[in-house]
Every structure is written in C-alpha cells, then in structure tokens.
C-alpha cells in the first residue's frame, strides 16, 4: 500500500507541502505530531488552521484530553486503522508530522504492544526525577542507551522512563530494537520527504513562528488551560511553548524571557528532529523553493 510521508523539523513548512500533495492526488492527511493530538492546545502546537483543514481532511488531530495518557502504541494502532480506511476508499494517505517516533512506529510496523511493563520500576524512576530532576534520568539512560539519551528531551519524561525500563527488562537498548524493526518489510510502500532548509533559515522561521504564536494569543491559550484545571506537571503542559508561558504566568520570568526560552527550546528540538530524519536514508530531502513540484514529480514516478 502506498504511503506518502512528509516529515521534518518544526516550522519547516510540512503542513503546506502535505496539503499540496494531498490536494493533487485527492488524498487525506494523517497527522504524526505528538502534541497536536491534544484538545484546546492549538496555537502552541501549530495545528493546521481551520482554513487549512478545509482544504483536505486531517486525521488524528484534536482528539485527546490534555490530562489523558496516550502512548505511541495507541497512536500506531489508530494510525494503521486510519490509513487502511483511506486506502479502502481509494484515496492516498499523506502522513505529516515531526514526531519521529510516531512516523517510525507506523512505517516500520514496530510492535510496541509486545513490550513488558514494570509499574514498580516506573514509580521508582518517577520518584528519582522528582527528587533529583529529569536530567538524572537522562544520565541513567546514557549508560544504558546513549542513542536514545541523545534523541529524547528530558521533559519527555514518559518516554525517557520507558526507554530505561525497556533496556532493563530486555537487556537491549530500545534504539537497537527500533533499528532492527526498520529491517522488517513494512506493510506500506513509503515515499518519504523532508524540506531541507539551511539551518540559519530554519532558525529564523522558528523565531518568527514563536512571535506569531504570541501575537495570536498563546498566553491566553495557556491561561485558559490553567483555568480549566490542567496541571503544569502534565506531559502535555510540559511541551515547548507551554511550560515557558506557565512560568511567565506564575511570575517566574518576563514575557520577553519566556519568548526567548520558547525560541531556544524550539531550535534545540528542531536540531534533534533534523538528526533523526537525516539518518533515515529513505527520506528525500527537498529544496524549499520547489518542494511541492518536486514531491509531486517524484510521487508520480513512484506510484504510476
């Protein structure tokens, strides 16, 4: 089954490219963004606008409560079902997002459901994080799985704990497990794209995006979430763009300082995303100036 994947770092223009491809082939978009799944979190997660969603149907956006646990295994199961339904209706699925683990899990058919769980170990690791900080868990993970330790952000505590747990239970780094599953033949015929901006250009785009988010009401969005009772300790509220504004609202910094922190965090995240995607030899890097035209041309050659 054919599957188009538009991957890449934040602010690279993925959404526009995915919509262009989907409209050209009469397809539908399957989001692969671990933050855009959450309800009420629109501006800070850069969800497609109402106008963009009107151009073609988007799936797996805006359906999880901010305080609801949602795993990559759950995402993978849902994504497979959505993609299968799109194919059944004779349309082309276009996966779009920057969450490498989501994309990897679907394209490579990673069986997360087979992994064991140790709730006691998870509680112990959570307590270490609360006592000594998330950075301590990254140190522990570095000794077990240096590759995952470099990929994962300390604030993504759930995945850091899962990576430690997986290695301790199986004796194998989760990064090695994921790499092995890449060798398994996928149920899909993926054609994967990424827009290759110069790093300085990408960073400028990120900085401007943050400015636009603030202009569009990011502070009010975060304030509403807090007023609705969502704790700042939630995984969703620890996302870049939310935790910094929470600190500002609690009086811990100025708005200018919060803005700069969001920009810095976003640039660092983009760097990690680029590292993730560039190591996948299947991904075709596109010139930003001709990305849509080139993607359509390459897709035509692939699916015809």
Automatic annotation (TrEMBL):
Specify the signal sequence span. none
Q: What Gene3D superfamilies has UniProt attached to this entry?
A: 1.10.20.140, P-loop containing nucleotide triphosphate hydrolases
By sequence similarity, the record places it as follows: Belongs to the IPP transferase family.
- Site positions per UniProt: Interaction with substrate tRNA: 99, 122
What is the taxonomic lineage of the source species?
A: Bacteria, Bacillati, Bacillota, Clostridia, Candidatus Ornithomonoglobus
Q: Does this entry carry the keyword Secreted?
A: no
NCBIfam families associated with the record: miaA
Q: Which InterPro entries match?
A: Dimethylallyltransferase, IPT, P-loop_NTPase
Native species of this protein? Candidatus Ornithomonoglobus merdipullorum
The name under which this protein is listed is tRNA dimethylallyltransferase
Which sites bind substrate?
10-15
Keywords, alphabetical: ATP-binding, Magnesium, Nucleotide-binding, Transferase, tRNA processing
Protein residues bound to ATP: 8-15
Which stretches does the entry tag as region Interaction with substrate tRNA? 33-36
GO terms (molecular function) for this protein are: ATP binding; tRNA dimethylallyltransferase activity
Q: Sorted alphabetically, which Pfam families does this protein's record hold?
A: IPPT (PF01715)
Question: Would I find Transferase among this entry's keywords?
Answer: yes
According to its UniProt entry, the function of this protein is described as:
Catalyzes the transfer of a dimethylallyl group onto the adenine at position 37 in tRNAs that read codons beginning with uridine, leading to the formation of N6-(dimethylallyl)adenosine (i(6)A).
Entry's EC annotation: 2.5.1.75
Q: Which reaction does it catalyse?
A: adenosine(37) in tRNA + dimethylallyl diphosphate = N(6)-dimethylallyladenosine(37) in tRNA + diphosphate
Q: Which cofactor does it need?
A: Mg(2+)
Q: Single Gene Ontology BP term?
A: tRNA modification
Q: How does it assemble?
A: Monomer.
């Amino acid at each position: 089954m054919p599957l188009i994947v538009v991957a890449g770092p934040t602010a690279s223009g993925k959404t526009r490219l995915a919509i262009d491809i989907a409209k050209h082939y009469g397809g539908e978009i399957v989001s692969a963004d671990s933050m855009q799944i959450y309800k009420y979190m629109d501006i800070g997660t850069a969800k497609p606008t109402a106008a963009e969603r009107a151009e073609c149907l988007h799936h797996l956006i805006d359906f999880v409560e901010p305080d609801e646990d949602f795993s990559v295994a759950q995402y993978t199961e849902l994504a497979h079902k959505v993609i299968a339904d799109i194919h059944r209706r004779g349309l082309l699925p276009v996966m779009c997002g920057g969450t490498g683990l989501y994309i990897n899990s679907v394209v490579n058919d990673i069986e997360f459901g087979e992994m064991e769980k140790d709730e006691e170990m998870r509680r112990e690791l959570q307590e270490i994080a609360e006592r000594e900080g998330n950075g301590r868990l990254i140190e522990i993970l570095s000794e077990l799985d240096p590759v995952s330790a470099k990929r994962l952000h300390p604030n993504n505590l759930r995945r850091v704990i899962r990576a430690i747990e997986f290695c301790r239970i199986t004796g194998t780094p989760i990064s090695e497990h994921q790499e092995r599953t890449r060798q398994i033949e996928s149920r899909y015929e993926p054609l994967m794209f990424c827009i290759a901006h110069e790093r300085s250009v990408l960073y400028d785009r990120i900085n401007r995006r943050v400015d636009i988010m603030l202009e569009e009401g990011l502070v009010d969005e975060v304030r509403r979430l807090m007023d609705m009772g969502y704790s700042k300790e939630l995984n969703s509220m620890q996302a870049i763009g939310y935790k910094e504004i929470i600190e500002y609202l609690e009086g811990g910094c100025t708005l200018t300082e919060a803005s700069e922190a969001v920009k810095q965090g976003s640039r660092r995240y983009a760097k990690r995303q680029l590292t993730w995607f560039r190591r996948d030899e299947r991904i075709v890097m596109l010139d930003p100036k001709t990305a849509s035209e080139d993607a359509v041309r390459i897709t035509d050659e692939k699916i015809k």
